[in-house]
Amino acid sequence: MPFKLPIFRKKVLEVLASSDETKVMHISDTPESVYRFLDGIIGKTRPDYIIHTGDLADNVKLERRPELVPLYKGALRKLARVLKGSGAVLYIVPGNEDDPELLREFFGDSVVEPGTVIEIEGSRFALGHTWREVAEKEADFRLYGHNFKLIERGLNGVLGVNFVLLPSGKTYRVKYPGGTDFDRGYKMWRGM
């Protein structure tokens, strides 16, 4: 089955694919059901950096169900193939549903602590799983996930796949496929 996208999403991806700027891709709280979608977006946009801000297998609630480690490892194996196969520089922040030791097993030195600030082409990125881990950091961009909260200079990876183009600093968001929140275990968006 070919990789198909809605018209608006397709237009944003065309803009990103045609850009000569450095591309930073940010994702968070990814259930296994979106791995194929992410692989398609990576193939179309060819990001230079990929930052995942935690809960890499968000359909496996490891924090509450530690007996699911075998399922979690299987999911990490699949996502590692997608992300490492991209050729992008990776940064992985452990989330509350992640096992940091297993993340290091699959992603090695790409795993960084929540609250880490990195610099890419003169722009500072604060990386955390929750907004609290980045809200007070001095950074041009604050990347996080975990819930639907929005903060100043923040990009929430739960709401969509975020892209930052450098050096311009332009940001774009590509929505996840329908059903992603259900696959994460969210029943509904409150107030939407």
From TrEMBL:
InterPro entries: Calcineurin-like_PHP, Metallo-depent_PP-like. One of its GO terms (molecular function) is hydrolase activity. Residues 23-109 form the Calcineurin-like phosphoesterase domain. This is Metallophosphoesterase. It comes from Thermococcus thioreducens.
